[in-house]
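Dear U.,

Please find below the material for section 3 of the report. The protein was modelled together with zinc ion; I have listed the sequence and SMILES used, followed by the predicted complex structure.
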Amino acid sequence: MSWKSGHGRVNSHSLEEDEIWYQFTMFFYKSKKTQTYKFGLLKALIENLYNADSRLQLTYEQIGYSFVKTYWNLVVRHGLKQGSQNSGVAAAVLRAREERQLPIDLSFDQLQAGDQVYVLECAKPIMKKYVFGALYSDFEGKLYGFDRRKQSQYFQFHPDSHLFLLKYQRLVTDLLNYHLAKMIEQYNPVIREFLLEKVESVAQRESLHPYREILLSRFENSCFYCGKSLHLSQKQTHVDHFIPWSFIQSDNIWNLVLSCKSCNLNKSDKLPDYNYLERILERNEYLKAEPVLLYEDRSLYNYRPEKLKLLYEYSEQNGFEERWSP
Ligand SMILES: [Zn+2]
């Protein structure tokens, strides 16, 4: 049942918390987003957690109101674009403001009830078509089900996800706001002083240069992945984080390998195929056996093969599902 057909039933299986966390991880880090609809819808769902009836159902009006409120405040009041251009709901909200000559410095709550209804009505057809089902496939019906056909219009929370959101509402909301802000930054050059990006990259090392020399001089003169021979040219020999940096967020020699430029660029933020795990575990035994290295790189003291195996396993839980090989 595709959401484009206008309805999608809520998944009937019960869900463990781990599974729901996994769905959210995949949503935040992997799901395709060309504008902020999905975040706006999740915000609207969270805002209405306490408004659901005894069957955990919500009306289209409840969700629509919350969604349009978010969009009005972001697009009109704060002047923030929601995609490479303001299309769809953002454009409809802007048009409604123009038609009614509404002041841009008011928040949605401060508008007259009649004006709120007008803005909502202008955006509704677009929300019905593009927004209300937008999270359905990402969560495989494990977050909500919906029906937008004329007779029976509703949203329905999955009971376990509803409980989960009640329990972790604050954490999920902060995550949601963070990802929404990251996306808005991308589309609004004015605020692109990148506070978020700065905060995120403070832990990142300027250069992995020293590692390249250590590894190249002692152990590795061929690409860890494809076997192509390497030499001490900065351009051609790259230092690669075996478990992606975006997950592990630190530079430890036991997680660094040398690779050719093409493998490094191609692998990018992906996890290497399982057989490379065996290979790096073996390589690390050589590293540990080198007394000078133990002295040079303190991270080797606390390195254990089991730790790397666990990290590899956890990276799956963290959304690194795809296995890469050259
Ligand atoms: Zn290579």
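For the text of the report, you could mention the following: The radius of gyration is 25 Å.

Regards,
Y.
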